[in-house]
Write a structure and sequence with these properties.
By secondary structure, the chain is of the alpha+beta class. Helices cover 51% and strands 13% of the residues. The protein folds into three domains: 3-108, Butyryl-Coa Dehydrogenase, subunit A, domain 1; 111-224, Butyryl-CoA Dehydrogenase, subunit A, domain 2 (Beta Barrel), CATH 2.40.110.10; 233-375, Butyryl-CoA Dehydrogenase, subunit A, domain 3 (Up-down Bundle), CATH 1.20.140. The protein has 13 helices and ten strands. Strand 9 and strand 10 (271-272) form a beta hairpin. The chain is globular. Bound molecules: flavin-adenine dinucleotide.
């Protein structure tokens, strides 16, 4: 990341994100000030092309942003992560004016994939898109389309300026079509708040669409091609950044555990906790696991950057590797820091709760193991595991 971005990020983290992180968690409040400050500082437009006014940077730099934010405030990091994933679709297929808004930092987007009907199987939306009565699509011209859906989780649902929205296709074969939907569209209902175990400020709530009318121009990519678009934009972005998110949590708890063990004393022995063998071994486990995940993430980014043959396999692996490691690392940190970790003062219990989201966020850990198993066995990635032709 250039100095311009890393200095700006550090400023926002120190001035806005860190001072509010504990309250965002305790009160389950959406980190609106952090999102605004990250927009103003250019961080939200970091991955946008320079030709629309963005930073022109890539996944490696976005991963640094997410890692640093996650170590400070998981909720803020998840909001930015979902924004980058949605923005990657808009960069590839969206209108220039929205791309410019995102590049300028004045537009927060998010993914509206998960549905009440197909749950974590985001690749199989049950929601519909139909041509409205009298809205027939003209040859090369725009018509109007009706969207109906029960979206189950949309991060930043009440604060976002757009949703990258999946539905079944209008008419084409294929599992999915993508749309750019504005949250103030008539017929959209954002339902309730979010009272979760972790990421308590991420504002992920259900959204219902009943007869939401959008222009056919709102389609992102071709009808029926939504999954193909997602597979080369949102999915790799989400999986790699999710790994960076888990890494940020691991770095934070490793540093917190190290500081605690080095400064907390057993007075009767005149020793610190880290001078005891068992805590020292646990601390080493935290460091080794965190370093292993960092190396795996770096290898994934390198495979993507150089177009290595195993790049897609690494992408399918990296979120599961990092997400499960983060669950183990935060659990070990909870144990080794004892009662101090059980209370809120070290921030370790918050990181532990935040870390558990990764394994259930789609593609979930088990879905990714299934994909990896299929990929290395020559089977179709999705649907019936017939041998791929
Ligand atoms: C904090 C948070 C924020 C989120 N934000 C968003 C968002 O912005 N946009 C969005 O679209 N979604 C979002 N989600 C939703 C998320 O991506 C998943 O869709 C959701 O967490 C899945 O939960 P579920 O109970 O529906 O899972 P279920 O589908 O009920 O799965 C339950 C368990 O069964 C396993 N399972 C089910 N089917 C399979 C299978 N075929 N192979 C292997 N394992 C399987 C899963 O791995 C999982 O462990 C968010 C979720 C969380 C927790």
């Amino acid at each position: 990341m250039t100095n311009q971005y890393s200095d700006a990020l550090e400023r926002v983290i120190n001035d806005v994100v860190a001072p509010r992180a504990a309250a965002v968690d305790a009160e389950a409040t959406f980190p609106a000030e952090a999102a605004a400050a990250l927009g103003q500082s250019g961080i939200l437009g970091l991955m946008s092309a320079s030709e629309v006014g963005g930073g022109g940077l890539g996944l490696a730099e976005a991963a640094e942003v997410i890692e640093k934010l996650a170590g400070t405030c998981g909720s803020t990091a998840m909001v930015v992560l979902m924004h980058y994933a949605a923005a990657s679709v808009i960069e590839a297929e969206g209108p220039r004016d929205v791309r410019r808004e995102i590049a300028g930092g004045g537009h927060l987007s998010t993914l509206a994939f998960s549905e009440a009907g197909s749950r974590s199987h985001f690749w199989a939306p049950t929601s519909t898109a139909t041509v409205t009565e009298g809205g027939a699509l003209t040859d090369g011209g725009a018509g109007s389309v009706r969207l109906d859906a029960r979206k189950s989780w949309i991060t930043a649902a009440a604060a976002a300026d757009s949703y990258v929205w999946s539905s079944r296709p209008l008419a084409a074969p294929g599992p999915m079509t993508l749309w750019l939907v504005h949250p103030d569209a008539a017929g959209l209902t954002v339902a309730g708040g979010f009272d979760g175990l972790g990421l308590r400020g991420n504002g992920s709530v259900p959204v219902t669409a009943e007869g939401v009318v959008v222009s056919s121009d709102a389609m992102l990519g071709a009808d029926g091609a939504g999954l193909d678009v997602a597979m080369v934009t949102a999915l790799p972005t989400f999986l790699v950044l999710s790994a960076a998110f888990s890494l940020g949590l691991m770095e934070a708890v490793t540093a917190e555990a190290s500081a605690h063990l080095s400064t907390t004393r057993l007075e009767h022995l005149n020793q610190t906790l880290v001078q005891q063998l068992s805590p020292r071994l646990d601390l080493a486990r935290l460091r080794v696991t965190t370093d292993t995940v960092r190396a795996f993430l770096a290898d994934t980014l390198s495979a993507l950057a150089t177009g290595r043959a195993d790049a897609m396999l690494r992408v399918l692996e990296v979120k599961a590797v990092a997400g499960e490691a983060a669950a183990r690392v935060t659990d070990t940190a909870m144990k080794v820091c004892g009662g101090a970790a059980f209370r809120k003062e070290l921030g370790i219990e918050r990181r532990m709760r935040d870390s558990l989201a990764a394994r259930v966020m789609a593609p979930t850990t088990d879905a990714l193991y299934d994909f990896v198993g299929r990929a290395i066995s020559g089977l179709n990635l999705l649907g019936d595991p017939d041998v791929a032709s």
